[in-house]
Specification:
412 residues; alpha/beta; 5-stranded parallel β-sheet; 26% strand; iron-sulfur
Length: 412
């Protein structure tokens, strides 16, 4: 029987689970598919409950990892197969090449000198980046990633001359022996291009809630200035459309839990930057459970922030101005209207990352992609692999999963 624990996913729940187990003396492996740890929280401008920047909570976790020899992490890594049983799993992992030296060399100057530009997934299509990059200044590991196939010929020559880069690094495969597995695979933003009636993916100034987080972030594509993607104009009138794809049998059939709170938070981002801007939130039900109800009351006390209960039927663009026109039925006043806004933010839902993805773990997923079993097999889920959660409850679920995993490897 192995006393080691595998944590799949290096977001907030995965980091919490790994550290809780490691600090009790257990060897833990974190397998993360992206180049950096931190998950979705790293993309946020601020997160609940204290409205801290992501570096606040994540850097503490990163320091704990650095100081704990029981934690070993693999980035750009995916689980290919899982064989065995509770207490004795054999896990095969593929690791993509990072193509840079592990010395944490500062390659910023080299990166900025490159001519090649590629789509920036971290900024959700709002900007481009170089093929030699780090996502954020606080990225962990603090080590650049190089994508050789995306370099121009001239850039390949330039990068090839650097002792810190290896254009020919090959992928690797390793095998891990572990006694239990924690699935902290997290969530992905629902594909907004499915929401054609709301203009998603078609109207430049109609963005998703996660794109709004990147616009508001100091390390985002606009250095924290919330502006219209089409022309950089400061928005004077901005709308948030709730349940964009959530609670809809044609898209996500569940409530994503955090969307109402996220829109209220983002409305405050706008109001803090632009004291004269008008913000309207179109909603079906405003769900701010528990202590978040106090936050809602504080937010709506702002006379420039308006809540309109009503279903948005459609969104269209005024091509001449770039304005976004929202067609909505006000359920309280009982009338339909088309209202012009500078920008619209769609509160798109949280879809579990395992939805539509490979499932080498042998666990059962429900129709939406959430994990519904596995504990009898020694496989435990945490965070948004289970259900939509905020950051605090994600961390709590990580602690719970760690305790269950420890009981498994101890044979109890």
């Amino acid at each position: 029987m192995s006393n080691s624990i595998l944590v799949v996913g290096g977001g907030f729940s995965g980091l919490t689970a790994a550290l809780e187990a490691a600090e009790l003396g257990y060897e833990v492996y974190i397998v993360e598919k992206s180049p950096f740890l931190g998950g979705r929280v790293a993309q946020l401008n601020k997160y609940f409950p204290k409205l801290c920047p992501p570096s606040c909570g994540l850097e503490i976790q990163f320091q704990r990892i650095k100081k704990n020899p029981n934690v070993k992490f693999l980035t750009m890594a995916t689980v290919d197969s899982v064989e065995g049983e509770s207490g004795n799993f054999t896990v095969k992992v593929s690791i993509a090449p990072r193509c840079t030296a592990p010395s944490s060399a500062d390659l910023g100057e080299l990166a900025s000198s490159l001519e090649s530009e590629v789509a920036d997934e971290f900024n959700l299509g709002l900007a481009t980046r170089k093929p030699l990059y780090m996502d954020t200044p606080f990225a962990f590991p603090n080590r650049y990633v190089l994508e050789p196939k995306k370099l121009s010929s001239a850039d390949a020559i330039k990068v090839g001359a650097s002792e810190s880069c290896d254009l020919n690094e090959a992928p690797k495969e390793i095998e891990l022996s572990v006694g239990s597995i924690i699935l902290a695979t997290g969530w992905k933003p629902y594909d907004v291009t499915n929401l054609t009636n709301l203009g998603a993916g078609q109207i430049t100034n109609c963005i998703s809630n996660m794109q709004m987080e990147r616009l508001a972030s100091p390390n985002g594509p606009t250095d924290g200035a919330i502006s219209r993607p089409s022309d950089g104009k400061a928005p004077e009138k901005i709308a948030f459309v709730q349940c964009a794809g959530s609670r809809d049998q044609n898209h996500l059939g569940f409530c994503s839990y955090i969307c109402c709170m996220a829109s209220l938070k983002q409305a405050l981002y706008v109001r803090e930057q632009y004291p004269d801007a008008d913000v309207t939130i179109y909603y079906i039900d405003m769900r701010t459970p528990g202590r978040y109800d106090k936050f809602m009351r504080k937010a709506v006390a702002d006379e420039k922030l308006h809540l309109v209960k009503g279903k948005v039927a459609g969104v269209e663009e005024d091509v001449a101005t770039g304005d976004v026109i929202v067609e909505v039925e006000d359920a309280v006043k009982g009338h339909k209207a088309k209202i012009r806004h500078d920008m619209v933010v769609l509160a798109t839902g949280m879809q579990p990352s395992l939805a539509g993805a490979a499932n080498p773990f042998g666990v059962t997923l429900d129709d939406e992609g959430f994990v519904v079993d596995g504990e009898a097999k020694g496989i435990f889920s945490a965070g948004c692999a289970q259900k939509p959660l905020d950051v605090m409850r994600t961390a709590q679920s990580g602690t719970s999963a760690a305790l269950k995993a420890i009981q498994t490897v101890r044979g109890r």
